[in-house]
């Protein structure tokens, strides 16, 4: 499960996040 509120994005988590259309500053 992805935590879209985390600040510690790894490259894989970030790609998954982008795949869901979610962006975090």
UniProtKB/TrEMBL annotation:
Question: What's the domain of life for this entry?
Answer: Eukaryota
Protein name per Swiss-Prot or TrEMBL:
Uncharacterized protein
Name the source organism: Nymphaea colorata
Identify the taxonomic lineage of the organism of origin: Eukaryota, Viridiplantae, Streptophyta, Embryophyta, Tracheophyta
């Amino acid at each position: 499960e992805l935590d879209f509120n985390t600040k510690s994005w790894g490259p894989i988590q970030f790609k998954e996040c982008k795949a869901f259309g979610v962006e975090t500053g």
